Amino acid sequence: MFRSGYQGASVRDICAAAGAPQGSFTNHFRSKEAFTEEVLDQYFDYLKGLVSQALTDETRTPRQRLKRYLDIITDKLECDRWRIGCLIGDLSLEASSQSKRLRQRLDAIFQEWRSLFASCIAAAQSAGEVDSKFDATELAEFLLASWEGAILRMKVEQGPAALERFKTIVFETVFKVPGSFELGTRHRAAGIARRHSKQSARARSPGNQHRQAIGKKP
Q1: pLDDT at residue 16, as a whole number
Q2: Among candidates 136, 214, 206, which has minimal Cα distance to 175?
């Protein structure tokens, strides 16, 4: 299904890839739809393991854990040479309009997936690492939807540019540390003020005024 998609992978193709007789398939699954739901569940279990690996890492701050998850997924996608994306995203595009059963399962998966990230984002907000202007659940929804879009773009380009662009921008805007821009601006302004103060002090010094007076003599 990663390579051929939901529509492109027939029951015969699935059995051939598994090296199993077609009768075995019908003994275990009533339809390709039922089989796909089982695949989705197993894939999501695998994905939740990666989420847990990143978001429960107590050696990192909550904001760092969010970044770590995206880096872990980037490494996994690189192993497939940027050609294979996220099965949840792929089936959301292809199967949700074809199967009510799969659409409902995908929606439930996204809600559970979102809740895992919402908890981490809420922790980041409590720690002052992320602005609390927006609800943590809404931010989690934005993060997942945008990340899935970046993965789709990655598959088209067969390269990491879309992923790296997303990570850079999202952590410099939506998930930037509150006050970091203002703090940097204040530091730069203070530096400029100090330089101007030193220049003014040198200009007012007796030695400099004497040199200026000599320079003005005819």
Answers
A1: 83
A2: 136
**58: its two tokens:** 């107590």
Span 195-202, average pLDDT: 54
> Residue 115: which of 147, 138, 91, 146 has the closest Cα?
138
Q: What is the pLDDT of residue 6?
A: 78
Q: How far is CA 176 from CA 140, 161, 170, in A?
A: 15, 20, 8
Cα torsion for 134, 86, 41, 106, to the nearest 10°? Answer: 50
Distance, CA of 118 to CA of 27 (rounded, Å)? 40
Return contacts of 95-102, CB within 8 angstroms, 24+ apart. Answer: 95/6, 95/36, 98/6, 98/7, 99/33, 99/36, 101/33, 101/37, 102/6, 102/33, 102/36, 102/37, 102/40
For 5-56, what is each residue's pLDDT tens digit? Answer: 777 788 888 888 888 887 778 788 888 899 999 999 999 999 999 999 999 9
Q: Is the pTM of this model over 0.85?
A: no
How would you class 212 by CB atoms within 10 Å of its CB: exposed for 0-12, middle for 13-18, buried for 19 or more? exposed
Rounded Cα gap, residues 86 and 67, in angstroms: 18
Q: Are 73 and 88 in contact (CB under 8 A)?
A: no
- Average pLDDT along the chain: 86
